[in-house]
Structure to design on (68 residues):
């Protein structure tokens, strides 16, 4: 019985100890999210004729208006 319980324990814990695959998927997910955000920002800035400086200025102006 003890040997059977040890075998069950080893079979249950083996996938838990091997987390390299899950960690790689997490990093790939973060990289994909970063690429998505950068592409959205790039598209938003690319469509503006004034450029990123004016966009940042508008954001700061709206934040200061909200704060008071």
């Amino acid at each position: 019985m003890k040997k059977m319980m040890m075998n069950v324990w080893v079979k249950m814990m083996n996938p838990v100890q091997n987390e390299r695959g899950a960690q790689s998927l997490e990093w790939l997910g973060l990289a994909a999210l970063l690429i998505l955000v950068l592409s959205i920002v790039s598209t938003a800035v690319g469509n503006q004729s004034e450029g990123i400086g004016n966009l940042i200025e508008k954001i700061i102006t709206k934040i200061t208006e909200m704060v008071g």
About this structure: The longest helix spans residues 20-46.
